[in-house]
Amino acid sequence: MVKQMILTRRSFTLSALATLALPKAGLAQVTTFRPEAILFNLERSIWLSTNRKATKAAYVVAAPWCPFCHQLHEVILATRPDVDFRFVFMGQNGPGGALANAFFSDADDQVGPVFADPRARNAALSPRADVLIDEVNTVAGHLMADSFAAVSTGAGGTSAVGGFAYPLTVQRETDRSITANLGAWMMLEELAARTAVETAPPPPQARYADLLRLAPELKPYSRNHFAKANGVRLFAAPVPDAAEVEWLEEGQGYKMIGTLTFGGADWLAVRAFTSGDAMKWARAEDFFTQ
After folding, report:
1. In Å, what is the CA distance from 80 to each residue of 20, 90, 126, 280?
2. What letter would DSSP give residue 272?
3. Partners of 153 in the beta sheet?
């Protein structure tokens, strides 16, 4: 995957054609996500629980087809630690209907059914629901891929885009540091003992429920938009408290390709990568156009 290039107001103004100001490939800047930001974004992704009754939580960057992710889940079931290992699935490489089905499950372990039958589907849900889960998590995960690789320790797993591997377990430790570990199935009890009790719970997962039930369609649109101020955020989903994947300075922007009114807010969309339909989302109120 190749990330989109940022458009600046100056580059737009100097270009004879707006389309020439935004190359189809290339990278204008690399965003480095520190461990705090990585954990923050995983908390705000769409995750599935392994133990809702646990007093502690850690996050597992995983893929449904990854044998090592399946192996980690089996070790979790065998040892039953007091940690909710929350799986953030991405890179489905298939229908993956079980993800949306599991999201709405009240089971303590939502992950098991995904590995048991990755293609299971709830007829009451739009086929786009599982696609949305994949897009939201893949945008957050793959835009942080280089930072994953930089902070990961340990070995093992299945290679993924960006130089990291599945499954990657990210947690806050009892000393308040944040670590990212490969090969968690080989040291699960140690990691569980080191996991801190949550002091600030993440936003409730239920905030994604309407997005997955309704699966709203983007309205096509084509216009350049620029940030009104420094620090304007782009998100992995058109949902409050979604993962924050990019920050623009005043005057920076993109050629937006779609609009969506959802959750009482107007959103702008730009492709997260130069191929595929995964989007980065921005609040329209944070941008101006010309």
Report:
1. 56, 24, 34, 37
2. S
3. 181
**If you search the block for the tokens 């949305």, which residue do you land on?**
132
Token pair listed for 4 = 């989109």
Beta strands in the chain (DSSP E): 7-8, 56-62, 83-89, 152-154, 158-159, 165-166, 168-172, 178-182, 219-227, 232-235, 244-248, 252-262, 265-271, 279-283, 287-289
**pLDDT averaged over the chain?**
87
Contact criterion met (CB below 8 Å) for 212 and 125: yes
- Across the range 126-152, mean pLDDT stands at 90
Q: Please state the pTM of the whole predicted model.
A: 0.88
152 and 181 Cβ atoms separated by less than 8 Å: yes
Distances (CA, A) of 41 to 72, 125, 158, 198, 245: 22, 26, 22, 15, 8
DSSP character string of 199-262: SSPPPPGGGGHHHHHH-PPPEEEEEEEEESSTTEEEESSSSTTPPEEEEE-TTEEEEEEEEEEE
d(CA 205, CA 233): 21
Contact 130, 95 (CB under 8 A): yes
Q: Is the pLDDT of residue 147 over 80?
A: yes
Q: Which residues pair with 170 in a beta bridge?
A: 59, 180
The token duo for 89 is 């699935």
Mean pLDDT of 77-102: 87
Q: Could you count the other beta carbons within 10 Å of the beta carbon of residue 200? A: 6
Round to whole Å and give the CA distance between 19 and 238.
Answer: 25
Task: State the CB neighbour count (10 A cutoff) for residue 285.
Answer: 11
Rounded Cα distance, 185 and 70, in Å = 10
CA distance 233 to 238: 12
pLDDT at 6: 61
